[in-house]
Please model this.
Amino acid sequence: QVQLVESGGGLVQAGGSLRLSCAASGRTFSNYNMGWFRQVPGKEREFVAAMSWSADSTYYADSVKGRFTISRDNAKNMAFLQLNSLKPEDTAVYYCAAARSGSTWLVWIPVSYNYWGQGTQVTVSS
Model:
């Protein structure tokens, strides 16, 4: 089992920044690929960004490329998502997720992830 807890969400004006954190506990964090997703009511969970267990590969949705940055600190069992140049359409609940390394990992598909956090709300005002 891996427990994931997100933090860092909040209310920010358009153009502002936030840094989301995901604290992991349980199994060895470095054995897991990490992803960030977001969801608004009535819509499916949407892929935002992902990073491989070794941090040598990163992936971004086109809608956030150049504005968001994913990172991780395996020594501290933490993953991060830096959100810059925020837009009102970025408003959503943001979730971090962990996928076991060594398994087939389709980074943009939620079912590829084994564990999820409870989410943190990001609201961007215009």
Summary: The first strand starts at residue 2 and ends at 7. The radius of gyration is 13 Å. Residues 41 and 92 are 8 Å apart (CA to CA). The chain is about 0% helix and 50% strand.
